[in-house]
């Protein structure tokens, strides 16, 4: 029997088991710990953003104070990221976060029993809540920064679904139970984050080594376009029964993305997120700012759906920079999330002032809407022009003479893989596999990291070898110069 015939026969014999493995992989359970992100999102809506509870200590001014307390804290952490990171190795961030969010919850509900103190309570609870929000965002960002893009998309979309379901459940609770269950949400979320870090292999957790990198301005610019546009429609988007995290638009879009990742797996097109966010955001801006449909069901659905797709996309892009190059999640996400809140605030201000200003016969809100539509269209086409998800998005690495140890090696190795991938025409998924192969990871480890079936991982490895015209891992290491790269890093560290 010829080699080709034997391979064909072996392939037919293995086809059924591989199909069964793919089927099992499609319904592979998502670790519950990683869904804790949706738990803290549920807390945000119940307490400060679009809540279905009319807290006496809450007003639009306290909402802004809540946001800017989080911004101030995250900016501080960005400045100190090199000294205090990573957070998961320390107890005090978890303790401070839990204390601040619990205190904020208690004071919010206490305003029902002390209406005369509602204004003072509102200030304290907003600051405490903002401090807790900033910390929990950074903790979860650190965890998601350890995951590859497929897992980030899968887990994050599933978390959004879970968060919406929690809010729907809480809407049926009486006040005493609502207080108790709301107070438990931050605790559950933080415990889930700690469990998530424990589930990661030691080598995949955030490292202490610092990778110096300039600001990825393309991500920041894209975020600013969408966040500003979202801020314009946010004020009137949630006047109905639903808030931003429990909106049918949030639930539907996150569900569609979740299903898409489960079905397509390694073939999932991340540009789909842009194609969802753009039309929904434009329709929402047109309906609310131009036609004035502030209480329209469709406008609220589009606002929440567009922003949900955008938030998943930004999470994937930022996490991928952390995952591929060892960039500090505290530094990157702290900067991105704080600027996002500021741009949203500016959007809200523009809509508020635009509603009382006219230029000739044109309302100020219409002008603001036109600017926002132009911004999101430009931002979307700008994003789609980037051919690779693995793009550095305008960032450049600033490696000092002292070197950065393992982080530098991983960064330089990824750069070499990128160059070879472009030269030999590798797909984005094959490039991911190449980087993991270069890191000396086995097929089984690649399968788990990329959340793909064993047969699919082997097929990608085979395609990489075929395109490189090599036949072994040793030949791959020689092509990449892995041993030489390690010697260079060691020499830098010794110097």
Would you write up a description of this structure?
The chain has 495 residues and is mainly α. 73% of the residues lie in helices and 1% in strands. It is built from 20 helices and two strands. Strand 1 (358-359) and strand 2 (362-363) form a beta hairpin. The longest helix is centred in the middle third of the chain and has 29 residues, at 297-325.
In brief:
The protein has 495 residues and is mainly α. It has helices at 3-26, 36-47, 60-79, 81-84, 92-110, 118-144, 149-170, 175-199, 217-237, 248-264, 271-290, 297-325, 329-354, 364-384, 406-424, 428-438, 443-450, 454-468, 473-480, 482-494, and strands at 358-359, 362-363. It has 20 helices and 2 strands.
Side-by-side strand order of the widest sheet: 1-2
Main sheet, how many strands, which sense, barrel? 2 strands, antiparallel
Number of helices: 20
Shape field: globular
Oligomeric form: single chain
What value does the Rg take, in angstroms? Answer: 24 Å
Structural class comes to mainly alpha
Compute the average pLDDT: 80
Helix and strand pattern = HHHHHHHHHHHHHEEHHHHHHH
Report low-confidence residues grouped into runs of 5 or more: 1-27, 400-404, 484-495
User: Approximately what portion of the residues adopt beta-strand conformation?
Assistant: under 5%
Secondary structure: helix percent: over 70%
Cα separation of the termini:
59 Å
Strand elements, count: 2
